[in-house]
Amino acid sequence: MNDLKQVGFDASLDHQSLVELSEKLENTKKEVESLNTKLKSYHDLTPNFYSAKVKIEETKLELNKVDRLLSEKMDALGCVSPEVNLLK
Fold this sequence. Notes:
This protein is mainly alpha-helical. The chain has three helices and no strands. The mean pLDDT is about 85. Keywords: Cell cycle, Cell division, Coiled coil, Cytoplasm, Cytoskeleton, Microtubule, Mitosis. Its main location: cytoplasm.
């Protein structure tokens, strides 16, 4: 080992140390990948609170429209539909 130190060998570069560093690197890569996946799920969100509220209201209006259309279609077919509004 003294011969290695004389030629500039660094103990942090021995096989065991490199294996441990490699394992840490793999674990870190997996963690970053997991965090990136979680982050991507937030990219569709609007950054502005008021814009988000507007988007929610637009979606509620669209849902009401679809609900009315469904009720009309069911009435046209003679189906009995309960009058349930999930938004109230």
